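Morning. Coffee machine broken again, so started the prediction first thing and wrote up yesterday's gels while waiting. Chain of 65 residues, entered below exactly as on the submission form.
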Amino acid sequence: MGEKTEFEPGDKAPNPGVYTEVGEARSFHTQIKDPKRITMERGETFPDTSNKDRKWKKAEKARVH
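Came back before lunch.
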């Protein structure tokens, strides 16, 4: 089984890196303008997102339109 790729506020970062907000549905028509980007260290807690329908994802794996 693989590593979890999307994280909710309050989850712990599994690895260091840059994380960005993604829409929960990730539909092509759902655009996020100016998503938050954060730099995390392993074990740090993810902060709140801009709204309840978003999650955090490692920037290199995130699709933001």
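The chain has one domain: 6-57. Going to sketch it on the whiteboard this afternoon.
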